[in-house]
Amino acid sequence: MLHGRINGWFAEIARDLPWRKPDCSPWGVLVSEIMLQQTPVVRVLPVWLEWLKRWPTPAGLAGEPAGEAVRSWGRLGYPRRALRLHAAAAAIVQDHGGKVPDNYAELLALPGVGSYTAAAVAAFAYGRRETVVDTNIRRVHARLVTGAALPAPALTAAEMRLAARLLPDDDDTSVRWNAAVMELGALICTARAPKCGDCPVRGSCAWRAAGEPPPSYVPKGQAWHGTDRQVRGAVIAVLREAEAPVPPEMFQREPADLGFAPAGIGVPLGALHRLNSAPEQLERALAGLLADGLAELHGGGYRLPA
Fold this sequence. Notes:
Helix content is 55%, strand content 2%. By secondary structure, the chain is an all-alpha fold. A two-stranded antiparallel ribbon has the order 1-2. It is globular. The relative contact order is 0.11.
């Protein structure tokens, strides 16, 4: 009953996304899954389109420096994902003849691919029956079946057992179910303002039946302004625009003092200095980027990895 109602709803309202199209390659699906981690569709879509235009195959990406992946990542955030995709592309070329693996175990063995991504690619790219569990799916399951306003702060074994129990038996229906429940959580059963009146299974919802009890905890959003993450992002924005290694003093002095016009590298440098970050915070950001492989020292300056 639940399967039919949710899958039927999905057939009518599913967003027209390029990585859902039948002609999308498994590589396109893998790229989308990495990009969509902690990032909304509206931000991912233009970057995904440009990425697939430039690198339609894993071999194309693997043949370029890792820094080009970081440069093309743009403002998606969490740029280590770009490095993971580059490493995964190299492994696909080296170990799988340039073809994205078609099963969970081999996908999971790729650099930077976790259990969710391996299951999602196996399901959505190859039609495998896999238990796909992301934040949206966890929230739908919590409300619909267990009656909780939100799932536990971290994924539990009980949640995985529930997801496996709800998964339809045949491959095709299971793939649609995974995508449909994910869409339900993204569009209707949202964290802060669920649109229960539009839900296709509102009459079966345990949370509504229980009187919509409040969450047992308050989710903590990630701070951004004034954090090391913000400074790191501003530094990477400079490196993306730079055509040569950037000397340390450029990060420490105003662009005008360095003789830069407000164009080219001067624009992200100006944005970096407007943060007014403490010198030690800038030093931490630069050291962290080096440690994470997102930057490297060359000729006395900083650049994206070669």
